[in-house]
Amino acid sequence: NAGVTQTPKFQVLKTGQSMTLQCAQDMNHEYMSWYRQDPGMGLRLIHYSVGAGITDQGEVPNGYNVSRSTTEDFPLRLLSAAPSQTSVYFCASSPDSNSYNEQFFGPGTRLTVL
Amino acid sequence: RKEVEQDPGPFNVPEGATVAFNCTYSNSASQSFFWYRQDCRKEPKLLMSVYSSGNEDGRFTAQLNRASQYISLLIRDSKLSDSATYLCAVRETGRRALTFGSGTRLQVQP
Question: Does pLDDT of A45 surpass 80?
Answer without folding.
Answer: yes
